[in-house]
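In the previous chapter we treated chains in isolation. Here, by contrast, the input contains two separate entities that must be folded as one system, with a combined length of 708 residues.
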Amino acid sequence: MMPEKKILLIDDDKDILQVLNVRLKSQGYQVAAAGDAISAISVARKEKPDLIVLDIGLPGGDGFLVMERLKSLLEFALTPIIVVSARDAATTKDRALKAGAVAYFQKPINSRHFLDTVQRALGQIAVPQGG
Amino acid sequence: VNPGRQPPSRSQLGYRSAALIEIMLDLAAERDSQRLVRNFCYGAKELINAREASVHIVAPGESQNHLFFSTSTSTSDSFSPPTCDCGLIGLAKQAMGRCLRKAEGAELGIVPPQQAAGSVLYVPINGSANCFGCLCLVEKLGEQDFSQEDERLISTLTAELALVYENIRLYKELERFATRVALESEARQRTQEELDFSRQEQVRLKDQFLSHVSHELRSPVMVLHQFLEILLEGIAGEVNEQQRGYLDIALRNTNELNTMIGDLLEATRIETGKLRVDLKSMSLQEVLNEATESARPAAEQKHLTLSLDTSVGLPMVIADRSRTRQIVTNFLENAIKFTPENGAITVQAAADREDSRFVRVEVTDTGCGIGPDETDKIFDRLYQVPNADSAARKGLGLGLSICKQLVTLQGGEIQVTSQPGAGSTFSFTLPVFSVASLAEPMLGEDLVPESIFLLTVELCNSGSADKNVAASVREIIERCVLPDLDAVMPDTYDIRNGQMFVVLARADERGAQVLARRLEDQLKLNPHVAALPGPPLVRLSTMDLSVARQNPIFGEQRAAVVAKIEESLKAILANRS
């Protein structure tokens, strides 16, 4: 049986964390959260998420730094990252995609599109489980 | 008349006239009043052959400014200026412009210089308006008294002095005036610069503030929006009809708030010149479909007929896809807002009747219409239609001004025509796509058909005719393409179960190979592509156009594409020569 996919949310806004938590749990995902750039890596190591939802404006270093560090670690090299940020897609989307994000969402997000993207990213990147 | 005095000989008179002219010429060249007076004194002394000469000037209009000069080397105590009860002006008035002898002066109460034991001649210095000074000659050397010829000569010289003196004064005044004007204008300019700077600074701060505020608003709006949706979807428990109704209203308002935040940011970007469009070749059909369909629920709620009518074979345009959709959506929202129930809204697109190089998109409604006075102003920032009911006035009044800017940035034109009471038509144009316009930026002077390479990127394995993967590959291609070196052909061509993208590249030494490598690297990095199973998904091939057309491995459809490109390039070449 396929275990539930785990998603790590990294955002400094507690309300955003909560609302995404409700959203994703209602879809049957497990959810973990980190509130700043510094704890993000250690939480990621502990939780071993299948997908990461990352904000850009974070205390302790921005989301790009987090992405760079995650991508440099072998265990997260293939973990899809979806960026959700208040910054303009026009200025930040390209940079985020070039840094290795699979998708960029400007807040406020379109839920259906967001959930589709999460599902697709998890489905397509899945390492075949149990052999 | 002095008895016993010889009249001057002609030669002596000639000599003195020459001397007078020489002194006058010297004086005329003088630009400094003190030096002028000094030279005048010595000149007068020499010309008249007096023992000493002194000048006393009260500068006109400046009674404090006395100028005194004497050729005498003794101290001023012993050769003070002549004094007079009635002052110099009085003296001149008394003298009626004439020269005065010592005795005449004494009668008028003039006290001669202390040293003046012998003859004395007082010569008034008459300016254009009044007398402003006096020359005092002391002792005619070798003679009893000054002659009439002396008087004539010295009067001429003194008139010259007065003239030059006044000229210098006027010149100085002019100079002072010019300096003052220059200083004032400099000060004004400085003030203006300071004002401009502070205004710019204010605008910058305002924009920064607006931008910051708008960004900060996005997160709370997202939280509101998401929780409302969660409630509406019943994720947090059952919702009854009344509650659902209220939540719907809250959600609609949250969406409106979000639109306003977006408009604020756009307006800020326009102000700071940061509004950008990303021009690509695209099909209008899709964009119009999307915009119309997403406006349909709101239209149906008001029982409005919403129809889309596009002409067959609508040409592709060069435009920013999301911006174009934004414009059409804005037009539609306005049309829905201002059209009463049971009205009709039509979206049309066709080649522009006036200029076939453009496609015109029109949104026509049967709403209240716009008066002729307002059609000019309606695209202005913050403009609100007067007398509109309060529901229609909702919003910031930025939408249409943003649309205008977006249309202009895309090289088109925005327009409105209206009949009050009958409805309005808002329209804009977009330039039609042509391979020529696509290839234009990368063409140099050395263009020959062989200088353009054709690069195809094929998704050739996909039993997974996955649209998302194709879209993601396309996005990568578009990002890798440099606007002035390479160009992406608009269509993706379905080749059986795969897809093909065509990229044009300049064939310099490395040309298309460099582009190919750039693409390959990016494609490998993309997790979608990397994770796909099966044989290589992407095949890159490069060839010049003439080879491409004759190449048997090119299918019929592809050969047609190549022929189309080649034809366009030939047309460009023909236009150039």
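Residues 148-232 of chain B form the longest helix (85 residues). Chain B touches chain A at residues 215-216, 218-223, 225-227, 229-230, 235-236, 258, 265, 276, 468, 475, 479, 525, 527-528, 531-532 (CB under 8 Å). Compare these points with the single-chain example from earlier in the chapter.
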